[in-house]
Amino acid sequence: MEMQVLAFYAFSAIAVGSSILLVSIGNMARALFLFFIVLFSVAGLYVFALADFVAITQILVYVGGVLVLMLFAFMLSSRELLNQLQNGTSQFLALPAWQALFIAVSFLAVLVYTAIHIGTAEPGWITAAKEADATIRPMDNTIQHIGAQLMTHYLLPFEVISVLLMMALIGAAHLTRKEGGT
Amino acid sequence: MPTPTPTYPLLAALSAVLLPFIGFLLSAMLGKRARSGGIAIASITLSLLAAGYAFAQVWGHDPVHAQWHWFTVGQQSFHVGMLLDDKAVLMLVLVCLVALPVHGYSVAYMKGDPGIHRYWAYLGLFCFAMLGLVVADNLLLMYVCWELVGFASYLLIGFWFTKDAAVQANKKAFIINRIGDVGFLIGIALVYAGFGTLDIGVLFGEPNRIAQSALPTGWLTVAGLAFFLGAMAKSAQFPLHVWLPDAMEGPTSVSSLIHAATMVAAGVFLLARIFPVFDEYVLLVIATTGALTAFVAAYFALTQYDIKRILAFSTISQLGFMMVGIGIGMYPMALFHLATHAFFKCLLFLCAGAVIHEMQHISKAHRLDIDPQDIRNMGGLRAHMPVTFATMLVASLALTGFPFTAGYLSKDALLVHAFEWAALQHGIAKAIPYVLVAVSVLTSFYIFRLLTKVFLGPFAKTLPSGGATGMHEASKWMLVPMLFLAVCSLFPLFTLHPLNDGQVWILQGMLPEAPAPPPLRALHLFIPAFSTLATCAVALLTWRWYVKGKYPLKTDGFLYRLSAHQGYLDVLYDRMIIRPVLKLSGALLWADRHIVDGIINGFAALGRYMATAAAWIDQRVVDGVVRLVGKVAWGLGNALRRSQTGRIQHYLASLFFIILVILLYHMLVQT
Amino acid sequence: MITLTHFLVVGACLFSAGLYAVLARRNAVLVLVGIELMINAAILNLVAFSRYDKAGYGGQVFALFAIVLAAAGVAVALAIVLNVYKFYKTINPEDIRNLKD
User: Fold this and answer.
1) Could you read off the pLDDT of B516-541 as tens digits, one per residue?
2) CATH number at residue C66
3) Which of B4, B133, B422, C95 gives a 20 to 30 Å CA spacing to A21?
4) pLDDT by residue (tens digit) across B155-213?
């Protein structure tokens, strides 16, 4: 077994294991930190998929932004909120809700089955790409290509995303404003 | 058909008929204001004048006939008209002549009666109906007037309708008259079926018309018998005579006019009018019935105590005489006897009325509380009411057929002709004249019994105030009519020869249709002599028995009781007819109430049950289905509502579940 | 060899876990975390497939956009959670039943 395969399995095990633990653990702070681990593992998986820029962006935005936001929201909340947040955590692992478990497991089954099916019956364009040898190599300069795409094909979405971000910013700021005197 | 030419006799007769009707209408409209009776008297007087004029113009000449179209049914037409021949104008004058005195008499007799305005009106109605009957030219119109006369009689018998006896009597009279009317109607129907017309002039004008009838043989006899049935009821022949004694519940003046002189004679008049219809067999039946009636009535009259009842039976008996007159084929004789009888019988009743009036007065004045009509309470009234006695004596003599009276002429003529007829007959018919002779004797007896008990001898009751009894003669309004009628009861009105009926102008005017039997000269002398002697003997006998008080016979023998109870006929009728009819009507009432109504109620109950069942079905089943749908929808909704928990994670779970199902479908179903 | 299937399987596991978190957790913030997990799984899928798209790098570009959108979404969602707490005094989705029929 090669090193990369092993590394891949390790990253994926950590990701999956952390996510499973994340959804079943009772303590919320710990859940958030597990989320942190999941994000990192998934970033590593991105690297294996030869999407290094996406991996870095993941770490920067998700871990550095989203997770930090959640942690700050959690940590800087008032006592009542914390109490609320801590409620229902009598055990280490919360009891699974059976209906949700069933749905989740069914989805898992379906998706895994589809994934395996992809392996046996690849879509045509993938086969064509493989035969034309037009797959991304590890040596490629992904950043350059991504940049070029952003500025040509995906210019409009790029601009719209910026507007959307502004909207989200204003919206979040407005939603969490303090009323005068409250 | 002669068109109605306005000849004077016609107009006179028409006015004679209509004047009393106008009087009736006026009296009815004026109501209680018509108490004096002036309208009635005026109308009858004018009617008499008109009738007299018509009589003078038509008697002895050709008949006058006028017709107007009445109605048409399909192809058949019926007319209303007047036929003025000898019989009609004779009766016209007779009725008016008898009605006028009665009207005058009523002024005094009915004085103070609270219902007198009705009395005048009814009298007018009766006169109109009677006069219409005698001039009617077809059988249908005659039937209409016949019924009207019966109706007027009903009204007048029940004049004092608060008395139960009067109400029972007028019902009885009407019902029995109806029985006769059925016969009359059957006769009319048969005549119409046989001849196609009801016109009297057409039917009986030509002598042999009747023989050419379209009826099968035998039916003409039935028609004759049917007509005779009608006459039997109207003229009180045995056994339908039972209404006449009870009809005496009406005022005496009514009894005198209607039930003595005119209405009861209508039956005789009818038979005289339609005389050609009768064949030998029917005539024999008529004669036999007449003789039987005469005898039975005279027999019943012997023991009666009510003064009016004696006179009522006397009327029935004399009507029997008239029927015999028709039965032997001599209808002019019958009509002649009808005329004389009208006068003296009316007079008899008026005198009786005067006596009753006086007895009522005495009874009230001396507080005696006696029946004013019972002859046992009377006696010796000759001293106080001499004029009444005299007129009543004249009338009684006329009744018995004493010489110099009109009754002698008619009655003995009938007797003689009966003997002549019987000579040609066989079997039972031969006995008829002898029966009539016996009846004459009985007649004398009962009328003299009445006279002696009422007027002679001492007064039956002792009066408290010794000297002045307070009895007086009847008033002038009563006496003058009585005197007039007494004069008419004597011979001069009818013939100049008091003892011979050969020159009676009535008989000379009307010729009989069939040839008369050969006269037996000897009888013409013997019969009158015998009857006169018998009358005298019987009068003396009654004097001895009732005035002197030497009454030899028992009063409680079977024959006596049979007579006093009028042959128990009323009891018989009650048991055999009235009670079964009442029982039948009771049974029918029960059937109607329980069966007919029961069926109807059953249907109603059935309908109700069905309605209840339908209601149940509608409520439980039909509504149930509807409600079930509603409940199912609700239940479904309720069940589905549980998915709306408001919890977002449940919604998400449903969402993903459905996506899962779709994915599975795509995976598993699609190859 | 790490084939496409491996990535897809991992993504499937992550997605299932996130789905479970969304459906079963009693805490709104953890539901958000579950949503983030699902988004991450999707992005992994995108990236895995983009390996064969040299010409357009479509998958990776789209993955970038997805990351950005997820971040914006979670920011606004947290603001909403805060407001929900202010109004309902609880952030347990089980307790917020005003949409109940």
Assistant:
1) 666 666 777 777 888 888 888 888 88
2) 1.10.287.3510
3) C95
4) 999 999 898 889 999 999 999 999 999 999 999 998 888 887 888 877 777 666 666 66
Q: How many CA atoms lie within 13 A of C81 on its CB side?
A: 23
Q: How far is CA B652 from CA A31, A111, C16, C36, in A?
A: 22, 18, 14, 16
Please report the beta strands in A30-120, taking only residues with DSSP state E, as ranges in sequence order.
none
Q: What is the C-alpha R_g of chain B?
A: 38
Letter string b/e over residues A118-143, b meaning 16 or more CB atoms within 10 A of that residue's CB? beeebeeebeebeeeeeebeeeeebe
Closest by Cβ to B656, choosing from A103, A113, A114: A103
At residue B64, the 3 state secondary structure works out as: strand
Digit-coded pLDDT (tens) for B327-385: 988 888 888 889 889 999 999 999 999 988 888 888 887 777 778 788 777 877 887 88
Which chains neighbour C (Cβ–Cβ under 8 Å, 3 or more pairs)? A, B
Interface residue A162 vs chain B (CB under 8 A): no
Domain that holds residue C74: 4-95
Does residue C91 form part of some domain? yes
Phi-psi category of residue B449: left, alpha or beta, with phi > 0 → left and psi -120 to 50 → alpha: alpha
Cβ distance B664 to A99 less than 8 Å, yes or no, reads no
**At residue B89, what is the residue type?**
V
Domain locations in chain B as residue ranges = 1-137, 160-564, 572-657
Question: Which residue of chain A is at minimal alpha-carbon distance from B649?
Answer: A100
Residue C21 lies in a domain: yes
Asked if B648 lies within 8 A of C23 by C-beta distance, the reply is no
Model confidence at B561, in pLDDT bands (50, 70, 90)?
A: confident
User: What angle do the packed helices A68-75 and C28-50 form, to 10 degrees?
Assistant: 170
A1-95: which CATH number, 3.50.30.10, 3.40.190.10, 1.10.8.50, 1.20.120.1200? 1.20.120.1200
- Read off the tokens for B46: 């004018």
The DSSP string of B614-635 is HHHIIIIIIHHHHHHHHHHHHH
Best mutation target, C31, C49, C51, C95, to test chain A (most A CBs within 10 A): C51
Residue C101: inside a domain? no
Please report which helix (H) or strand (E) contains residue B482, including its range: helix B476-488
Q: How many domains does chain C have?
A: 1
Q: A149 with C61: CB under 8 angstroms? A: yes
Give residues with Cβ within 8 angstroms of C24, minimum separation 6.
Answer: A23, A94, A96, A97, A100, A101, B649
Element (H, E) at B80: strand B76-84
DSSP state letter for B546: I
Interface residue of B643, B654, B667, B670 to substitute, partner A, most A CBs within 10 Å: B667
- Chain C residue with Cα closest to A11: C10
Record: contact C19-B656, CB cut-off 8 A: yes
